[in-house]
Amino acid sequence: MKFKIVSILAVVFLLMSFNVPKGILKKIEKEIKATYDIEAYQFINIDIDPEITKILDSDFTKNNLFKIEANGEFLGYAYLGQAPSKTAQFDYLVLLDTDLVIKKSKVLAYREEYGGEIGSKRWLKQFIGKTAEDSLKYGDNIMAISGATISVRSMTNAINNLLQSLKVLHNKNII
């Protein structure tokens, strides 16, 4: 029990140091626990050399890529990102297994009046199982959503960019 509390506090302090709002922290914790079927876990920040981040399609400059471990066992990765909607940005989480296969994607905060349907479990489910070998295309293998075209394209591009960036990091033995 004591280990569980210490682990949770460590995760909360780690994420708060990166200016993640408290409400989003709760969503992240809930998704990690449910996806990996665990109660306590640790986040380990993955530091990426700024020179390498210049060649990547995703933004890794905000300490937003983490290893997830529980009881000394490596479970996978968590990526916290932002993508543009019509006039704002939305926050999202991608959880991956140890082989960089998407286990879960979640829109954490959507700040527009329209387009919030991209946060539905049904729509986000289509990213599960995707890897860097997949090419995601709006309207082809990614469903369109009426009234959310900009956000759908943005999320699709963000996931594509993330997977390609993770492939580069893996090939360079960083992850």
TrEMBL record:
UniProt keywords, alphabetically: Electron transport, Flavoprotein, FMN, Phosphoprotein, Transport
Domain FMN-binding residue range list: 85-166
Pfam short name (any one): FMN_bind
Claim: Phosphoprotein is one of the keywords in the record: yes
GO biological process assignments: electron transport chain
Domain of life the protein comes from: Bacteria
Protein name (Swiss-Prot/TrEMBL): FMN-binding protein
GO molecular function terms attached to this record: electron transfer activity; FMN binding
Cross-referenced InterPro entries: FMN-bd (IPR007329), Ion_transpt_RnfG/RsxG (IPR010209)
Gene Ontology CC annotation, any one: plasma membrane
